[in-house]
Amino acid sequence: MVLDTGEELLADALGGDSPLMKAALAVEPFIVPYDQLARIDGWIVWLGHPPVPEGLPVLPVPDHILWDEPATALAAVAAVAADYAARRGARNADALKSTLARESPVAIVVPDTIVAGLRTLLAEVIGLGIPVLDRPRDIEEALIVLPSFALRRGAHAQPVGRLHDPALSFQSFVTSGRAGGGPLSTFVLHHEPKSDGVMVFGEDGDNLGIEIGMAGARITPVVVETLEQEAVKIPSFLNGVTSQRSGDALEIGWRQDARPAARELGEVLRVWLKALHGAEAADVRVAYAPANGPSPVLTEMHARAVLFRQARGDYLVNDQAAQ
């Protein structure tokens, strides 16, 4: 069954009788400013008495939700995390947990002893993949090595060219320009990179070609198609940019005055494919071409994409036949 909302994902992961599930449903609605995640490693919820140590980015929800009852704070964390996972494309309980284990936008800090009832709720939170720092000796050091926070920190540090984060793909805005998506455009991901970096051919045009080669222990021919589907959204990690599949190509859209440079498209794909999937190399090639007139680079890229897809299909057929 395909689940579309955070509430549905929580119910699937926890069950309708779960105390955490019931508490999450009882929390009043609130707006989460996800775009903040492009500037920080993640939010924390302090499951103890204030004050919170200076400099820690506290989850931006109404104060009474965080501080009136610790159980309500935990419920709010579960609701935010599940909503984030749903927006990131999770459609079942397993995908919810794997998304949060990899890139949870929030972590819980337990600075002192808590009552048994909260321990029960906390165990459910941990089961969802949300990180919990239980009485850490050094909070700042613990947050530095926290995998989901380290993932964001490492990716944000890369010179992409503008703000970028998976949460920026949640943005809603009026699109003022588009490129790609037509029959002369192309998009493909394969497992035969020639280098680790970005190559750009042309800076402007209506037609767009993107070719990505990835290598790594987990980058096998079997998973390449799934990675290609996930890569479709990565250009929308750029601030003010949208991306969607159109046939065998990508259609890129942008907010007024926010057209992405070709190198920004290439770098955001390279950085986040490596961060999210542990690739050792990501060879990204971006080619623009005008609506009219020949484009040898795009023509060659299109031909290679056809061959890569054919080879991928043949491999999968032979792999299934061998099982």
Which helices and strands occur, and which strands form pairs?
Blueprint: H1 6-14, H2 19-26, E1 43-46, H3 63-67, H4 70-87, H5 93-103, E2 106-110, H6 116-127, E3 132-134, H7 139-145, H8 147-156, E4 177-180, E5 186-190, E6 197-201, E7 207-215, H9 221-231, E8 241-246, E9 249-254, H10 262-277, E10 281-289, H11 296-322
Parallel strand pairs: 1-2, 2-3, 5-7, 6-10
Antiparallel strand pairs: 4-9, 7-10, 8-9
Q: Can you tell me about this structure?
A:
With 323 residues, the chain is α/β, with parallel strands linked by helices. The protein has two domains: 6-156, no CATH class; 170-322, Bifunctional carbon monoxide dehydrogenase/acetyl-coa synthase(codh/acs), Chain M, domain 3. The chain is built from eleven helices and ten strands. It has a four-stranded mixed β-sheet with strand order 5-7-10-6, with helices on both faces. It has a three-stranded parallel β-sheet with strand order 1-2-3, with helices on both faces. The chain has a three-stranded antiparallel β-sheet with strand order 4-9-8, with no helix packed on it. Helix 8 packs antiparallel against helix 10 (262-277). The two termini are 26 Å apart. The mean pLDDT is 93.
